[in-house]
Amino acid sequence: LEAKIEPEPVIFVPGSFELPLAAQLSLDSGFDAAVVLGVVLRGETPHFDYVCQGVTQGVMQVSLTRSKPIGFGVLTVDTVDQAIARSGASGSKEDKGFDSTVAALELLRVKRDLPVLRKS
Predict the structure, then answer these.
(1) Catalytic amino acids?
(2) Which domain does 40 fall in, by range?
(3) What's the angle, vertex CA 90, arms to CA 88 and CA 91, rounded to 5?
């Protein structure tokens, strides 16, 4: 898949709960895909659960209603150390931002190839 990846614009939002709308606005403005990145850190109240559920469902709804992929790189963690370990930072074990970008690109490939696959 040849992809023209545009690192701009990066859209900053006040919190993870605002990511679904930011993704929707991006897709509606003409982008073929989006990647959402964020961290939700568990606190002492159930707020964590509400935010995680809302963000996950919201991003999925936008992706499905627009038929466009959204890479989901929202880390839901208990500690800052867990977030760093998944962030792609030097010495981290994982890079969920990279992984979610690859997932969005793979779905673009599937979307591109699906009409060809149906004909064979």
Answers:
(1) 47
(2) 16-119
(3) 95
* Domain CATH number, residue 79: 3.40.50.960
- As a whole number of angstroms, the distance between CA 119 and CA 100 comes to 30
Q: What is the value of pTM for the model shown?
A: 0.88
Both tokens of residue 4?
Answer: 């023209």
Please check whether residue 73 lies inside any domain of the structure: yes
Q: How many C-beta neighbours within 10 Å does residue 106 have?
A: 13
How many domains are contained in the chain?
A: 1
Collapsing DSSP to helix, strand or coil, 92 comes out as coil
Provide the angle, in degrees to the nearest 10, between the axes of the packed helices 47-66 and 19-28.
Answer: 10
> Considering only CA atoms, which of 106, 70, 78, 101 is closest in space to residue 88?
101
Q: What is the pLDDT of residues 80-114, one digit of tens each?
A: 999 999 999 998 999 999 999 999 999 999 999 98
* Rounded Cα distance, 72 and 52, in Å: 12
